[in-house]
Amino acid sequence: MAIHNITDSALLVKKSRRTIQRYIASGKLTMVSNSLGKPQIDTSELIRVFGVLSKVSQKRIAKKSQSVAAKLLRKNNSINLTPNELEDIISRAVEKALSKAIPLLIEDKKTAPIAEENPEPIPELMPESITPTVPVAHKKRKLIPVINRPFIAKKKERKNGYAAAFGLPNVITEVIHLQIMKLHSEGLTSREIEKKVSVSQASIQRTITVST
Q: What is the pLDDT along the chain (212 residues), one digit of tens a residue?
């Protein structure tokens, strides 16, 4: 049978993506990873857990897969692809097409610069009477040259659409999210999970809190 990504699996069983992810994290649903490390679920596994699949969604996914496959074959006539490579490309293209309808990114509002207030005039000082004093020899001070350092603008961190959609920290991708929830269900602490996924404990704890 065919394998499907999380988006297609959710359509086939008429469930949300979050529900599919929770089933995977709790061990109720078995997944495999493709060559890119993305989770894939076999059709037989979906039927075992959820029963009969949606016929309308099956036709919709099959139609999009055929369309994507035809375009890829026309574009890459000189390239020989293995069945597994072609299936990965089709899966990614279908997932991208389906996710266009979901708003993932929120643009920052640009704020207008605040106008500087007019500085208050400095009152003139009255000249004081000059008292003759004994001249004092002053040591010459060495002038320290001023080094103008080039201004380096900080790169704006690119927003993670998947993390924004589920209210997760920006460093959490779909694969890392599933790994954290799976390790958490096995009883590992945030510190132990940090050693396996290379993400800060704060991000791990927030991910667990949002997903449970």
A: 678 888 888 888 888 999 999 999 999 998 888 888 888 988 888 889 888 877 766 666 766 655 555 565 565 554 566 777 777 787 777 677 656 544 444 454 444 444 444 556 565 655 555 555 656 555 666 667 666 666 565 556 677 788 888 888 888 888 888 888 888 888 888 888 888 888 888 988 888 888 87
Tell me the whole-structure pTM to 2 decimals.
0.32
- For 153, the 3-state DSSP assignment is coil
Among left, alpha and beta (phi > 0; psi -120 to 50; other), residue 136 is beta
Residue 2 exposed, middle or buried by CB count within 10 Å (0-12, 13-18, 19+):
middle
Distance, CA of 36 to CA of 92 (rounded, Å): 10
Local structure of residue 44 (DSSP, 8 states): H
Q: Alpha-carbon distance 1 to 89, whole Å?
A: 18
Q: Rounded CA gap, 89 and 86, in Å?
A: 5
